[in-house]
Amino acid sequence: MGEGGNGADVYDRQIRLWGIEAQRRLGTSCVALVGDVGSLLMHELGKNIVLAGIGSVLVVQTHVDPAACRGFLEGESSQQLSQSLSQLNPLIHVEARELDELFRSNLVPQVVCVVGGLFGDTFLELAAKCRSNHVMFYAGRCYGLLGALAMDLGKEFKYFLAPKKSDDDNEVNLAEKSVESVVSTVEFHQLEFMKWNLASKRSACGLFVFQVLERFEKKFGYLPSIKQRPEDARLFETLIDEMHEELQLKKSQIPREMLTLALETACFSVAAVVPVLAGFYGREVVNIIARNAKPIVPFFFFDAKTSMGIIDSWS
Asked: Residue 159, Cα to own-chain centre: how many angstroms?
């Protein structure tokens, strides 16, 4: 519980919300924040994590995302952001780490949260290392008016659902009545080539849009921008056709309107989108540590134009 003497008082409202046992789990857990540490998404997520009472936070700088809004905390380096997060909640432990040191000490994270990329080579390697070390992995990024969150919780993730509380129940009774459930997720690297049309009919085709964007960035080294480079429209369309063939999709299944929105806005930062994704991101991290709610797996997509969030599940 941040193990500080005043922890119970500081986290009183949260304890009322999710219980003393969940808060204890948060306080003894370790989360790594990896990616563009100076970005607004990293700062929003970091704030949510430390204020929730996560016991230890590791901060790892890997790159700078040129398309990302810059943050509101003092911190364009791992050391600076660590100090800023420590000031937000002095009850927790925050330290800067190098990426190659992430699993080489006594303090190993239970959850790794990537900010600023999904399918980059560095993050795919990190996701594979997390899987082999039984560490839960999340990756999130904003692209203009769109936001994405993808995850790998391993072969078997157990969580416990308590029944609705009655007047006679207390926290101990509810814990005894909780029902154990299990969910499994595909390996993270498989999402890069996952056939999104295998998901539920409610799917907004979000994964395909981000597959195209990430593939474009890998191939050309930047996100598309038809205002800055009109030829990007042709390159983007060619890539869509290639992936259409690769994933064996029907022409009618290609989400044209959403792809157009991605082409027009992906390289720009929209500050209003970031807190929405960061709030959802932080809530999911708290839930999987507390293990008292069904996790969202393996992909969440947010479209600010329609104010709609969609969950695509292949669990």
From this structure: 19
